[in-house]
User: Which sequence fits this backbone?
């Protein structure tokens, strides 16, 4: 079942998503400079806000999955097994 929760992953996912977008944007600018083309023209601020919002929702879903697997992890199971194959209640 889908659970949305606010926690550490909810806060880290938007930061990581925006950092990844900015890294790719800078790589595209460097590539354009090397090829002597015009740099990419896009509204970076607006895209950063949209990417951060998407990261917030993905992070919230991931945080819900992580919270639901806490009991499984407490028994000593691997985190991957607990996240993707949770025990049936």
Assistant:
């Amino acid at each position: 079942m889908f659970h949305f929760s606010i926690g550490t992953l909810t806060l880290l996912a938007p930061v990581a998503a925006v950092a990844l977008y900015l890294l790719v944007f800078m790589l595209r600018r460097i590539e354009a400079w090397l090829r002597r083309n015009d740099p990419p023209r896009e509204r970076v601020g607006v895209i950063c806000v949209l990417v951060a919002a998407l990261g917030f929702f993905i992070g919230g879903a991931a945080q819900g999955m992580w919270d639901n697997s806490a009991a499984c992890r407490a028994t000593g199971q691997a985190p991957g097994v607990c996240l993707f194959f949770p025990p049936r209640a």
